[in-house]
UniProtKB/TrEMBL annotation:
CDD domains: ALDH_F7_AASADH (cd07130). The gene is LOC104600531. Keywords: NAD, Oxidoreductase. GO terms for molecular function: aldehyde dehydrogenase (NAD+) activity. Homotetramer. This is aldehyde dehydrogenase (NAD(+)). It comes from the Eukaryota. It comes from Nelumbo nucifera. InterPro entries: Ald_DH/histidinol_DH, Ald_DH_C, Ald_DH_CS_GLU, Ald_DH_N, Aldehyde_DH_dom, ALDH7A1-like.
Amino acid sequence: MGFARKEYEFLKELGLGPRNPGCYVNGVWKGSGPTVSSVNPANNQIIAEVAEASLSDYEEGLQACNEAAKIWMQVPAPKRGEIVRQIGDVLRSKLQHLGRLVSLEMGKMLPEGIGEVQEIIDMCDYAVGLSRQLNGSVIPSERPNHMMLEVWNPLGIVGVITAFNFPCAVLGWNACIALVCGNCVVWKGAPTTPLITIAMTEIVATVLEKNNLPGAIFTSFCGGAEIGEAIAKDSRIPLVSFTGSTKVGLKVQQTVNERFGKCLLELSGNNAIIVMDDADIQLAVRSVLFASVGTAGQRCTTCRRLLLHESIYQNVLDQLIGVYKQVKIGDPLEKGTLLGPLHTRASRENFEKGIEIIKSQGGKILTGGSVIESEGNFVQPTIVEISPSAAVVKEELFAPVLYVMKFQTLKEAIEINNSVPQGLSSSIFTRRPEIIFKWIGPHGSDCGIVNVNIPTNGAEIGGAFGGEKATGGGREAGSDSWKQYMRRSTCTINYGSELPLAQGINFG
């Protein structure tokens, strides 16, 4: 049986068919849960069907994964790195097809879809190098003939729950590191992007099989909240990495904390760009467009608030409205498209509700503000003039809506930047060193990502990615983020015949 539409035929190259089992447990594909449809957000037509995981599938998968962990953690770290290197090579060979699937199923434009898969390839390369650098340390002991060491060991299993907006890159940030650190991975992909979950898992499974390793090292489930809750509650999973909303993230954290597990949270963003009076205006306008319209405003690092110095306010706004009106909206797989659809019909409805709330709180729509009548979930990129104290500005509307506000001093701009519950990304445009160093210092931005003269999005894998406050405090990808995926032991070795603390005691 073939796909309903000819343009979906390329999915066969990724091991996908019109009907697919949606969980990979103990090296076998199955799915005894409900059947769901994967929908193309550009036209709301069904791409393919997937049988989700049941709780019995989950339990079978975790038992096998728990056994596989005993094997995997004993494989030398550089050998684990070699497996991740091979995963990167297979991803390279499937880059175009997998990138196309990301665009088709998620709705981001094709260069973004391909770029997302490239990010996992880059993470594989990064993790391969890391596999030879999981170094501990030697600490001077205050006791004679004693040696003190810090040793890093695997946790065992890492649970990864990812969101629809980056349906495979976030897996890469976590899984590449977790695997070289000696952990098995249990992945629950987003319920609305099951085909990406299956295609990515198929690639990892192929490499494990080729190397005669247990498939259960990488266990994956398509499913909804029920499977997510099972992961959060499961004491066999010492670390749960969750990407999603602050509301759900808080529940996950509470559940994991109750069993003394560890959480790595990547939650909401409400990111601001500040444009100072001395900024390169053209650079700022291009950056704001890229940061606010890309991925239809559905990145966690999307620019949602634009803070303009009063002296350049109208100039920047006029230019920005001009470029917004030139944005080509359409099928994300078509060349030249800059703005694809929102991911679901519900997202489109949230956009409409959001616009009504904005108007009720004194927001003035400068451009956009409407849904586009079509089969898909398309909306207009929107700019809103609004007070920074409006309640709606403190929330994250996951759509291409940009709030614009005026400020007079740097101090005021920083206060507005820091006035929201979220603390993911932030950026300032200026040429003045004294402003730059204040911005990145203790009285500057309170975010995990603090940029200068670049947009809020486009983070590199070499740095630790994540944010503060209601963004959750987690860090993924580069720097020393790997330490979250391991447990630290402080080891003291006495290589002499004396026990210094027992001197003066006669043991007979």
